[in-house]
Amino acid sequence: MEVAKTRTRGLRRTYSRVVSGASGRVLVVDDNKVIRQLIKVNLELEGFEVVTANDGAECLDIVHRVCPDVITLDVVMPRLDGFGTAAQLRADPRTRHVPVAIVSACTHHEVEAGIEAGVDAFLAKPFEPAELVRVVRRLIERKDRRERKGAPAGRGRG
C-alpha cells in the first residue's frame, strides 16, 4: 500500500514531462507486478526504455537479447532470487559489467549478500521515484564513463 502512495505523490511532484529519446535501457526484474509497473512508469517518464522480467530466471533468459544498460533486481523472487541472479550475471563474461541495483528492503543481510554477489547499488523499498531515477542515472553515467575510458563498467568479478 505504501508503494502506491509513493507513486502517486512522486508522479505529481517529481515528473512533469516525458523526456524525448531514450536515456538508456533498463531491465526491471521483480515478481510483484505492481512494483514492476511502478518502476517501469517512473523510469519511462524520465526517458528510459524499460523491459521487464518476472524473476531472475526470466532475466537470465532475456538479458542477452535486451542488452540493458542497467538491471534492477528485487531480492525475494521465485525460481531464482536477486542474489543468485546477480551472481550469475557477474559470472557471465557478456553481462559481467552491466551495473546491477538491488531494489528491496535492503536489510543489513541483503546489503552484505548483494555486495558479495557483485551488486553496484541498493535502493530501499518503499522508495521515492526521484531516488530511483537518480540511482539508475548514476549507474548509466558511471558505465558510460568507464566505456569511454576503455574499461568495462560494473563491479564484475572473475
Order of helices and strands: HEHEHEHEHEH
Q: Biggest sheet, strands in spatial order?
A: 2-1-3-4-5
Query: How many runs of DSSP E, i.e. beta strands?
Result: 5
Class of secondary structure makeup: alpha/beta
Q: Low-confidence parts, pLDDT < 50 over ≥5 residues?
A: 1-20
Distance between the terminal alpha carbons, to the nearest Å? 40 Å
Radius of gyration: 15 Å
> What proportion of the residues form beta strands (DSSP E)?
5-15%
Summarize the structure.
The protein is of the alpha/beta class. The protein contains six helices and five strands; from the N terminus they run H-E-H-E-H-E-H-E-H-E-H.
Molecular structure report:
The protein is an alpha/beta fold and 158 residues long. 49% of the residues lie in helices and 15% in strands. It has a 5-stranded parallel beta sheet with strand order 2-1-3-4-5, with helices on both faces. β4, α5 and β5 form a beta-alpha-beta unit. α3 packs parallel to α4. The longest helix has 21 residues. It is globular. The N terminus is likely disordered.
What is the element layout, followed by pairings?
Elements: H1 2-14, E1 25-29, H2 33-45, E2 49-53, H3 56-66, E3 70-73, H4 82-91, E4 100-104, H5 108-117, E5 121-124, H6 129-149
Parallel strand pairs: 1-2, 1-3, 3-4, 4-5
Helix pairs in contact: 1-2, 3-4, 4-5
